[in-house]
Design brief:
With 267 residues, the protein is of the alpha+beta class. Helices cover 49% and strands 15% of the residues. Among the domains are: 65 residues, no CATH class; 100 residues, no CATH class. The strands form two sheets. Strands 1, 2, 3, 4 and 5 form a five-stranded antiparallel beta sheet that branches. About 16% of the residues have low confidence.
Length: 267
């Protein structure tokens, strides 16, 4: 009996303790969670979203008619120079796409669309004669008069000067007289002239002394044949080896060989 009474007392205490626990949980714990979540967390999230998403752009200017398509203003700005100058002069702090409420990408797309059209209109308005000249690329001369000097007359002096073995003398040979004989084997050797007389100029490089003498190489050749029964001279010279009346240095030795053999020239 005592045991049953003891159980009943315990059950009554349990019933009395349970409401106290539930009240503490409901009254104390729940308000803290709701207040922290609702009052503290939510306002921060909403403020951040509003501030980051909404951009701060320039206002649409007053001359823009909101009933019209804003792309028409871009098109007019690109195509009409007067309209473009007017806008840049009066609204220098704005771009045309900002003024009508569009973006830079809209402006670029419109410009790409108009570019082929502008090229086509230029071709249509261009006269036919100008089209023909535009297709041909050529350079006009700065003057129409004939030049007074011809560059073909200028010859490099080094081609006409030969040096002796010691390098202390220079020689130039000028043609004074040519023979009337016609050259044989033109197809093989080309056009040639037979030289009769020459003017030899020798310059001493150390003393700068100049010697000059006229030689009848035809007569010298005959003299050498009579005295020594041979001649080593070759008086036939190709036309391309004669520059402005002077013999190129590659032919000097052949022309003066007989005169050197008879000691008329010391070179």
């Amino acid at each position: 009996m005592k045991f049953k009474r003891y159980l009943k007392k315990i059950q009554k205490k349990i019933k009395e303790v349970k409401p106290d626990i539930e009240e503490n949980v409901v009254e104390e714990v729940k308000p803290d969670i709701e207040e922290n979540v609702v009052e503290e967390v939510k306002p921060d999230i909403e403020e951040n979203v509003v501030e980051e998403v909404k951009p701060k752009g320039k206002k649409i200017l007053g001359f823009v008619d909101r009933k019209k398509d804003p792309h028409q203003y871009l098109k007019r700005y690109i195509k009409e120079e007067n309209y473009r100058n007017w806008f840049n002069r009066n609204y220098s702090n704005y771009t045309i796409y900002e003024a009508v409420g569009l973006t830079a990408s809209d402006y670029i797309e419109m410009k790409r669309e108009i570019a082929p059209e502008s090229e086509h209109t230029i071709e249509e308005t261009q006269p036919k004669n100008e089209k023909k000249h535009a297709d041909k690329t050529y350079f006009k001369p700065t003057y129409n008069e004939k030049p007074k000097t011809n560059f073909d007359e200028f010859i490099d002096g080094r081609l006409l000067i030969s040096h002796n073995a010691f390098g202390d003398k220079e020689m130039k040979i000028k043609v004074l007289e040519v023979s009337d004989e016609t050259a044989a084997l033109v197809s093989k050797f080309g056009d040639r002239l037979k030289i009769n007389k020459i003017l030899v100029t020798i310059k001493h490089l150390k003393s700068q002394q100049v010697e000059e003498g006229e030689f009848d190489i035809e007569a010298i050749e005959n003299e050498l044949v009579e005295k020594r029964h041979y001649s080593s001279a070759n008086r036939w010279v190709p036309i391309e080896d004669i520059k402005n009346g002077y013999i190129t240095n590659t032919r000097h030795t052949m022309l003066i060989s007989d005169a050197a053999a008879l000691d008329y020239i010391l070179f």
